[in-house]
From TrEMBL:
Residues 1-13 have a biased composition (Basic and acidic residues). It comes from the Bacteria. This is Methyl-accepting chemotaxis protein. Residues 1-23 are annotated as: Disordered. It comes from Georhizobium profundi.
Length: 77
């Protein structure tokens, strides 16, 4: 439990140094990632393997972010 507490503490420290717009963008990203993870689990449960691969890197004013694509492998049943 101590490591979970430390992760939350570190996230709060980082977010306190961000602007409101940055905090909003991070919350939206976290929500979208949660939905993506749910979709990956649903696809795996349906019988496909899913790998997320970086397709490109987006740059803006010295910042960057990885853009992802799914690589899907279907399995015969």
């Amino acid at each position: 439990m101590a490591s979970i507490s430390r992760v939350k503490e570190r996230a709060e420290e980082q977010s306190s140094a961000m602007s409101d717009d940055q905090q909003s963008a991070i919350r939206m990203l976290a929500n979208d990632l949660h939905r993506l993870n749910q979709s990956v689990m649903k696809a795996v449960d349906a019988g496909v393997s899913v790998e997320l691969v970086r397709s490109a890197r987006h740059h803006s004013e010295g910042n960057w972010g990885d853009l992802m694509i799914p690589v899907i492998v279907t399995q015969s049943r």
